[in-house]
Design goal:
Low-confidence stretches: 8-31, 69-81, 89-151
Shape: globular
Strand content: 35-45%
Organism: Aquitalea palustris
Radius of gyration: 24 Å
Pfam families: DUF3108
InterPro entries: DUF3108
Number of helices: 6
Protein name: DUF3108 domain-containing protein
Length: 386
Amino acid sequence: MKSSLRIFILALLASLLLHVAMLGSGLLPETAIELPPDQALRKIDVKMQALQLEQPAPAATPTARLLPGGPATAAAGHKTKRKRDASAAHVKAEQAPPAEQAAETEDASQPLAEQANSHQPVAASAPAAAHAEKTDKADQHERVVEASAPASTAADRPAGYLTPASTLHRFPTQALLGYQTFYNGAMVGTGSLNWQHGPNSYTLEIRFNPVIGGSRRYLSQGQLNQHGLQPDSLQAWVGHEAKESARFDWAGGTLHFGDQGDKEIALRSGAQDVFSLAFQLGLKGGQLGSAPLQITTGKKVYDYPMTPSGETDYDTGSGKIRVIVFRAKGEDDITEFWLAPDFANLPVRISRTDKSKRVELRAVLINIDGTEQWRLPARPMTRNNH
């Protein structure tokens, strides 16, 4: 009798600690996302666009919006905004001298990298030439924006879909995603993914914070060039103890990996680690070719063909996010990246399934360049009867 009572008290205490840990996390809302059965993938209606790395100033408007009841409302709001912008531009043009108008328009029409290196004054004695030049640059800038913009707008989708506060044309300089983590369908903790890039390099930090057990951290670092991400290293830690790692020796053509970093294999062009792969897919719009890619988790090395498998919806329970699913099947495992074209092609769900387990990350927070674009609203705790 005493033994049964002791087991009951321990089970009650474990349950209490589990709920307190969940509710006390800054990344975790007050309830878990329901785990629906795997959704059938639809035919991809809209091609995911490759994005540029240059990032404009972040929008001041916080949080994502849920689409209104019909496309006409969104179209009307967009039309009203164009009229306000045109009116403001007309008033400003009347007040500014011709030389200032030309210089200001030229700066606004250039990408940020060009603005930083271009400070040539516009001659006040040649207004016609300045006007022709600024018009040409404005047209060119408009074409670049159109090429990098998502292929559809909010008005193209029915009500109930989430979109960012403002259209995201470029790949983020900084991005923070918060996740709930699941193990075989049970929520076991939280996670986060922190992306940052400079002119020629990137840093990608991934953290897993289980309710029970030690935290796990991964750090992927590398270069950015005309081919996108070129990883240099991947390092894992459990707590403060270093675990598996990978080192990409591009000059020597060797990939070092393993628990001690003592295994070697020939390094192939386009190789990625399992985390940089998601961002390479996002940056390149999923266009990485049909040939198998060399991918490492630090422990092992795989060859995966990584092509889009279909389109579906990431249903958060508080709105849907349109996603393109990239599914890679190995001999005894499946890896999936669910990338959101409306949210700069960022991964809102990542899953890995093998013979014994299924591990998933499901987004509850998307912050892009310092602006919170979406967060799963807190809801009352509900009992899962399944």
